[in-house]
């Protein structure tokens, strides 16, 4: 992935093109790309990856244009997640 500044600049450019309000970007859930036995079960949403560079399942982000705030939402890892996929 790129340096954090790259994603910050991309989000800044996006917010300059929107007059106000909120921007919602949804990441993908963990699911097979084309069949259940695929050894690569996850592919992040391209827009989410472009603006945030986070390649983890079940994430969502909100950019508040007027407050100039950005929020990323996700779930904490469970013990099962850590055992099967690592920290």
Description:
The protein is an alpha+beta fold and 87 residues long. The chain has one domain: 3-Layer(aba) Sandwich (Creatine Amidinohydrolase, Chain A, domain 1). The protein contains three helices and three strands, in the order H-E-H-E-E-H. The longest helix has 13 residues. The chain is elongated and about 45 Å long. The chain starts with a helix and ends with a helix. 9% of the residues are buried.
Tally of individual domains:
1
Radius of gyration: 15 Å
Return the CATH architecture: 3-Layer(aba) Sandwich
Q: Give the percentage of residues in beta strands.
A: 15-25%
Q: Mean of the pLDDT scores?
A: 89
Q: Which structural class matches the secondary elements?
A: alpha+beta
In CATH, the homologous superfamily goes by the name: Creatinase/prolidase N-terminal domain
Largest sheet: 3 strands, antiparallel
Number of strands: 3
- CATH structural fold name: Creatine Amidinohydrolase, Chain A, domain 1
Global geometry? elongated
Helix content: 25-40%
Element string (H = helix, E = strand) = HEHEEH
